[in-house]
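Input record (one chain):
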Amino acid sequence: MMRRSTMSAIALFLKNALFTVVVPGVVAVYLPLTMAAEGLVDQWTPGRTVALVLLIAGAALYLWCLWEFAAYGRGTPAPFDAPRQLVARGPYRWVRNPMYLGVELVIVGWSALFPSLSLALYALLVALAFHGFVVLYEEPTLRRKFGAGYRKYCEQVGRWLPARKQGTGIGDQNG
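The corresponding structure, as predicted from the sequence alone:
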């Protein structure tokens, strides 16, 4: 018989995998590829190399954030199953929303790989949607849930750009 902690870890992994396939998978992979179905050319260019770097960096950043949410925060990126602890470690030491940035890098990578105005506009629309969600829902929810700790974190770590003040200790206690 499996131990409860093993079953809990498996359930957490499955929830994170399902969320990743359904939400970022649709937003950052399925929709962009559907939009650019005929835009790929056979010739390799420096722009395609940049696109590949963006795709890999974005996916790696998203997966690193997912790991921190699951391993440390014991939750998922889904708002209804968010981490139980404030995650201020890993990429969250430098910027408050690296998971969104990872997804956006993937979309921009597709836009560079399949140059099209519709993909560039889609990337902009997704970025605006992320910003709206963060400002209108996520930050107020996290302020209520984590109180003074989250407010201090916001003062010391930038929302979208690295703005971590040195020597603050934010994230240091968490790894």
